[in-house]
Amino acid sequence: MLLQRILMLLIGVVGTAANAASFDCKLARGRLEARVCADSDLTKRDDELAAVYASFLAATGDRRAEKAMQLAWLRIRDACEDDECIQRTYYARIAELQARIASASPIVGYWKIEHSCAHATGVYEERCKKGERDVFMLAIQVDGDRVCIAHLATAQLHNRVDGSDDFEMSMEGNASGSMASVRYRSAWGGTGTATLRVDRNTLRWKVETKDEGRSWIPDAAELRRVPARGYDSLPKCVE
C-alpha cells in the first residue's frame, strides 16, 4: 500500500519513487499489516492516509522530525487489538494531518509531556519508578488568528485529573505565527492566562496570571509534539 511505500522512501529502503513498487500484501509483515490487507475498509484508510501524508510532507520544512512522528504513530496503530481500534487510529491521524495542512500555524496538533519522578515521594515514588507518569497534554486547533485548546493534566499519578469532558475546548485566545496567548479554565474552577511558544517540535507553556480557584495545570512545561491516538480529536472553535 502507498503508506508503506512512502515510509520506505523516507527510511531509504528504496531509491526513487519511479522505480519503487507499491506495497504487495503478499509480502505483508506482521499481524497488523496482514490485518490491514485483509480488510478493504482498512486498505482504503491506509491509502487515504498515504495521500494525505504525502501532501503534508510536500508542505513541511522538517521531514526528519515528521518521519519520526509517523513511525511513532505506526507504533500506536500496531498496538491495536481489533479492527475498530485500527480504524479509529487511522481516522485520528488523517484528521490531524489535514488540520495541519489547512493551517499555516505550527501550533496546530497534539502536544504532551510526561512528568519525571523528581518530586514523587512515598508510594507515588514507587509507582513512578515502575513506569506510571503524570501527564500534561494539549490538543490545539487554530482558526484564523483564533486558537482553541483542549487540555488534560493529571497529578498524584492520576488521582487528580484536570481536563474537559470529551476533550472539548477549555482554553482560547489569539495566535500569531509560532506564539499564542490564551485564557484557560481548569475543571477544578481555576482560571488564568498563559502563553505558548513553539520551536520546531517543542511547545513551551507558561502561566502568566492566575485567578482564584484550584487547578492542576502546571505553571510551566515543555511539551513535545505527538501523533494522534485513536480516541483523539482536535477541539472545535465554538462561539
Question: Could you characterize the architecture of this molecule?
Answer:
The protein is built from six helices and nine strands. It is of the alpha+beta class. The protein folds into two domains: 2-102, no CATH class; 109-226, Lipocalin. An eight-stranded antiparallel β-barrel has the order 1-2-3-5-6-7-8-9. The longest helix has 20 residues, at 40-59. It is globular. The N and C termini lie far apart (41 Å). Residues 1-22 have low confidence and may be disordered.
Topology overview:
Layout: H1 2-11, H2 30-38, H3 40-59, H4 63-78, H5 83-102, E1 109-114, H6 122-129, E2 135-143, E3 146-155, E4 160-163, E5 171-176, E6 179-185, E7 191-199, E8 202-210, E9 220-226
Antiparallel strand pairs: 1-2, 1-9, 2-3, 3-4, 3-5, 5-6, 6-7, 7-8, 8-9
Instruction: Please give the count of helices.
Output: 6
Helix content: 25-40%
Instruction: Label the CATH architecture of the largest domain.
Output: Beta Barrel
Number of domains: 2
Q: Write out the strand line-up for the largest beta sheet, numbering strands in chain order.
A: 1-2-3-5-6-7-8-9
The main sheet comes to: 8 strands, antiparallel, barrel
Number of strands: 9
- CATH class membership of the largest domain: Mainly Beta
Mean pLDDT metric:
84
